[in-house]
Each structure stands twice: as C-alpha cells, then as structure tokens.
Amino acid sequence: MGRHCSQTSSKSTRFAKLQEPLNQIFNSILSDSSQKTYRRAIIHYKSFVEEYGIRFQLQLTNSDLILFIAHLKNKELAASSISTYISAIGFTHKINSWPDPTDSFIIDKVLKSVHKGKNQDMRLPITSTILNQLIDALKQTISNKYDQLLFKAMFTLAYHALLRIGEMTVNNKNYNHVISLSQAVILHKKVVINFMDFKHSNGKQFHLEIAKNKNDNICAVTALTNYLTLRTNTTGPLFLNSSGEAVSRQLFQHALNGALNFCGLSIAYYKPHSFRIGFATDASAKGLSTETIRTLGRWKSDAFKLYIRQSGQISNI
C-alpha cells in the first residue's frame, strides 16, 4: 500500500511539471481580444441569471440559450455582439467536451432572426463641415482655455485619425488601448500617431501620418501643437483634463453634447463614433478606395462599409 501511494505521488509530481506548458497551450488557443470578449459573454450571462433568479451553470440547454438570446436582444445589444457571445458559450462547451447547444437548427434560426430584425445604425457622420461647426462652438460652450484646446485637439484627432472612443478616453480606469503622450509625435507639418495596441491589432502596430490641413480651424497638427503647449510635461495618456488626469469617456461625451446642442444638432444621432463615420464618409466621397479607408481606420473586416453614408443619408438632425 505504501509503495502504491509513493508511486502515485511520484506520478503526480511528474505531471505537475506539465501544468505550466499546458496552461500556455490553452491560453494561446484564443487571442487576448477574444478572451476579453468571451469573458464579457460570461458576465452578461451571470447578469441574466441573477436578474431572473436562475441557478448559474455554464452547461446550457437550447432552452437556456434561447432565453439568453432574448435577454440580450431586450438589452438592445447589436446582433453581431449577440452572435459573438453565443459563439463564446459554444466554445466553452466544446473546450469542456460538453454537448454544444449552439450547434442546433433552432439556435441557428433564432440568430438569423435576430440579424434580420437588427436595429439600423442611426448614428450620423461628423463630416469636416460639422467638425468645423463643433470646433467653433467650443469657444462658446467651454470657458476654460485649457479645456478649449484639449477638446479641439480631441475632436480634430478623433476625425483625422479615425479614433475609437477607447483610444482617447478611459472608462472605469481601463487604459488598454489609450494612446499615450509618447505615441504622438509632431514633425514638420504633420503628426504621426504610433498605434501600439488597438482593437483587432493582435500584436501588430500601425503608424498613421496626418498632414497639416488647409483649413487651420480643423487641422489636427495645429490643434495638437497648441494643446501640448499647455499640457503638463508628464508621461501617461495623451489627453489629460485640467486636473492632470486621463480624460474620461463621460467628460468627452459631455463636451461633445454641449457643442452639438449649441449647433442645434441632435445628441441622439451624433456620438463619439460619428467622427470615424464622418472621416470614412468624407474619404469615400473624395474617391479614396475602400482598402485605403479600411487601413486608415484599422478595421479588420469590411464592416466599416456600413458606416459610409451616402449624401442622401446625411442631414443636420
């Protein structure tokens, strides 16, 4: 008996050495961005079961999944997000060798129905013309000189660099993709943004050059230069508020809403993402190829084509 226990213990010790490489193998199955997305799926599912008083368990049936899809739809999540979260649940089942409820006729039909009835993206583009109006409005809606220069730099760079909101502001102290001071370099008549980490980057870097604009009012080079003359010379995020802290998503939204209201534009249709939509729309109207626009905006797929608004879709609501 004693020798058997000794052999078992010895075998366990030998296998323990394999635990670390085994963990590395499983962690490398999914990219960092996919792991974060899949974790969000579990968070949404936990929220769902808590809201409806259901016992939490990860091994689901078709019925569980249909109710969860209905819950996500009720929360007005995008159809693409719902599909991604269901894929995450399917992956969890496969990796655990459980029967996969996502691989069924009924779930396939439910997801197709969700996509057919998906809400139309009503966000309007902040084109160069509207950007010009918003920049002028900042002088009336913000009294602090520093904040005027800060948000002028943020608005112009959000447009010309097709920035995502998470690349220029923090949300719940999340700095994952926020551009730092060292990543923005001002050279002669241009600014270079070195994207070290961004959505779908998967370890790749991207360098974007923005030339000086003929219209100085919406020129990102001029705006960023003027802002940096007042910014404290410290490391950290590129955009800091007057207290020296990273600009929050809420503060940026507040400044944008103030400018929109002053211009008589609806805050229901113009959002932070409207800067990206605006540049893509303007670039398309000027004849830039879809491949060039995709590259400039750091889009992984052709989904960005949905953002390009035709002239008939643009209005000052």
TrEMBL record:
Q: Which GO terms describe its molecular function?
A: DNA binding
Q: Which residues form the Tyr recombinase domain?
A: 125-317
UniProt feature coiled coil, ranges:
none
Organism encoding this protein: Mytilus galloprovincialis
| BP-aspect Gene Ontology terms | DNA integration; DNA recombination
* Entries under Pfam families matching the protein: Phage_int_SAM_1 (PF02899), Phage_integrase (PF00589)
Which residues belong to any copy of the Core-binding (CB) domain?
A: 16-97
The record's keywords, sorted A to Z, are:
DNA integration, DNA recombination, DNA-binding
Recorded protein name is: Tyr recombinase domain-containing protein
